[in-house]
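Purpose: get a first structural picture of the assembly so the mutagenesis plan has something to point at.
Setup: two entries, given in the order below. No constraints added.
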Amino acid sequence: MIGVIDYGAGNLHSVRKSLDRLGLRSRLVSSPCELAGVRGVVLPGVGHFGAAAGELERRGLTAALKEWLAADRPFLGICLGMQLLFEDSEESDGRAPGLGAFRGNVVRLQGPRRLHMGWSFVRSGALREGAGARGPDDWDFSGYYYFVHGYVAVPAEPGVVAAVAEYRRSFAAVVRRGNVLGVQFHPEKSGALGLRLLERWGKP
Amino acid sequence: MSAARVIPCLDIDAGRVVKGVRFRNLRDAGDPVERARAYALGGADELVFLDVGATVRSRKILIEVVERVSAEVFIPLTVGGGIQTVGDFREILRAGADKVSMATAAVLNPGLIADAAAAFGSQCVVLSVDALRAGASWEVMTHGGRRPAGLSAVDWACRAAALGAGEILLNSIDRDGTGRGYDLELIRAVSEAVDVPVIASGGAGGPDQMAEAVLVGRADAVLAASILHDGLWTISDIKARLRAGGVEVR
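Result (structure tokens, whole complex):
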């Protein structure tokens, strides 16, 4: 069973529909006790960093998810869900901390448009030569994925960056450590390639 | 940067895809779910559904179409037609849409743009601008292209983006369904004036015109209906030609 975290915002349904399509059973999780029997957690993302962090806290999920992450249990953060894995964000002026699984913060994306919206090429590898995350298996993330975001995570540890994309400059598109994966794009909206990523992450 | 998006537009009336010329003379163009599935398989980057009936009954049908499509097509879906309230937004997003587009309602009540952006985020608020050439400028039309709004298309797009619209769907009424090519001046004027993505719409006749819309008009995405519904071009052929013309596509 995969738990899709419900924090009152975000489009949870498209994530669940894509898991359904892959034959992966899921349920919504809006309180810590609903994590019982769940083997992997998806934190989907759409919305405001501060509002989401506040809502996780209000539902008692912040502590439960921190514990989950500390135990290196399977976790997938999507878009805002990836950003919430970091320490804090400019979007909330540092007033609402994230889950802190990765060191670093989230900053406004500087580019030709206010939002980076569209399909961009993701390349497996590090932001800087020789600093890439190496998983136990050689997971290749390369290909086009669909992005919608106005903020981007800046990892303090270059080794966690597993794939990068460009929007005026390179940014971390995938971060990974052990079983914890964060993707800035929307795999549930990235066609066949996105489904393949979800399947690879979610299949036992 | 992002790849230029190629977006089939499915106008829905009474559960069927329809297509007209200059917003009139609608004819049948197939089953929406079948069409959506085929376009997605063919490499469409996104799908737009517009409820041209915009009645209570047609909304119900539209919702069913969106529910069915979103259960099997995993690319972004934009849905519009007859949106009046934040509640309409919620209903359509819940059915599986990623973005909601509005046209007339936003002109009549610009606060709806800000309200929807505050409630759901500006990434899912699409302003659809139906523009009719008026001398050296373009006038915004409402009610399916029938009534002048008394607004300049460029000014209105800017104002809407400032209010929280995350994307502009820019339709040239003059070119709609004609296959004569996009109105490049209109697209460029809006694209340079706003800080959100612009989807060029109205007049797609083939990939060379789509390439112009991106390279000359600076559109982020190109919308097409007739040439796809009529089978004049497939999406993969369009993309091959765009790529050869120096446009990045997925």
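The mean pLDDT of chain B is 93.
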